[in-house]
Amino acid sequence: MAAALRRLVRRVSPRVLTATVCRSAGHKSDDFLQHDALRRLVKRAVDEHRAVSSRLESGAVSEADRRALNRRLLDASALMEAFEETELLLREMEDLQTLIHNTSAEDQQMLSLLRDEHEELGRRVERLHKQLIETLVPPDDLDSRSVILEVVSGRTTGGDICQQFTREMFDMYQGFASYKNWDFELFNYTPAEYGGLHHASVRVSGECVFRWLKFEGGTHRVQRIPEVGLSSRMQRIHTGTMTVIVLPQMEEVDIDIAPKDLRIDTFRSRGAGGQHVNTTDSAVRLVHLPTGTVSECQQFRSQLKNRETALRVLRARLHQCMMGQQREQTHTARRLQVGTRAQSERIRTYNFTQDRVTDHRIGFVTRDIKEFMRGAEGLEDLLRLLQENQDREELLKLLKDNS
User: Fold this and answer.
1) Are residues 313 and 392 in the same domain?
2) Which domain of life does the UniProt lineage start with (predicted)?
């Protein structure tokens, strides 16, 4: 209360505050902070902070142990400080709410100042909540990786709507890469008629690319009235789908592929690309014989460069398969409750007729579909919400395990 009053005195000086102050019984602290398991984690951090500090002060530790202890001390301090500051801010918000309740409606200047201060504290609490979650939830080791991103057209009886939508999605990701200052390296691009796209694969590299794009993998649905044909004249809505595949780019040492397990096919490039297209066998297709996994690249004139690129894609696909096998047992129970969220399931709908994009995983809706598909702030906002949602789910699992 005193801290809230002091800030207001500085802003309202020389005005004298005469409001009656009492604690509001109806105000509730954030449920997240009241979770018993979280408080146990914080108490554990306090105990560890005390023990580590004592060891460091004793001086009887090696240099290697000192570095490890300092890291533990920083982790414990970050959790303690974020928790304590959040609780302090929540108490101040409660006091401000009481001031607002007891301030006369005629004193508009005071009410405005109190409400502004309450909103500012709320924003700070929200930032601290995110900091707490980031401190408690271990980061995904793959988040910093570049990705292999593929877009694949689905099938529909409505003509070329899927191919056109696939091209628009490809353009959206290219726009997002530009917005985030990422590199966007094209591996394969198979165009369709009327400006559509059957399939394309690219490597996207930059800062924390997989952290941002891993939520895009899955089936994306489009609903729109075709621009030409009978359906256009009748204003009939068609539905189509396309699939996005996002694979983390693996280091060369991650997957060892024996030469005897690899079949290499060469063929002539297809599509636009100049006089060399359809004249030399520069395109390369790799088949991993034990698993039947296939990758290909036809983007470059050099067969050697196409082979190197196809090998990178193949490693990423094999790693994805291995990771899926390793995580199968631990994720079975959760998938039974919330669905697999696999690429065969719809994750998002783009309704052009109603100018609406809906992400079905978190209920996100935006009405400006053209702005969203520009691949800038709109897509970034959604991906940030998906990140936060995943972090909250991981935190709830952590708290449950510590209950």
Assistant:
1) yes
2) Eukaryota
Let me know: does 372 contact 357? Beta carbons within 8 Å.
yes
| CA 146, chain centre distance (Å) | 14
- For the stretch 264-307, pLDDT in tens is 988 877 654 444 445 567 889 999 998 888 988 888 888 888 98
* Helix-strand-coil split of the chain, %, nearest 5: 50, 20, 30
Co-location of 129 and 208 in the same domain: no
Q: What are 328's two structure tokens?
A: 């199968």
Same domain, residue pair 12 and 155: no
Q: With bands split at pLDDT 50, 70 and 90, how would you rate the model's confidence at 156? A: low
CA dihedral sign, ordered 290, 296, 301, 305: negative
In what helix (H) or strand (E) does residue 200 lie, and over which residues does it extend? strand 197-205
First to last CA, the chain: 33
Instruction: Identify whether residues 125 and 182 lie together within a single domain.
Output: no
Answer yes or no: are the C-beta atoms of 217 and 244 closer than 8 Å: yes
The verdict on 201 and 90 lying in the same domain is no
What are the residues facing 197 on neighbouring strands?
191
Q: Are 24 and 114 contained in the same domain?
A: yes
CATH of the domain at 303: 3.30.70.1660
User: What is the residue range of 121's domain?
Assistant: 2-136
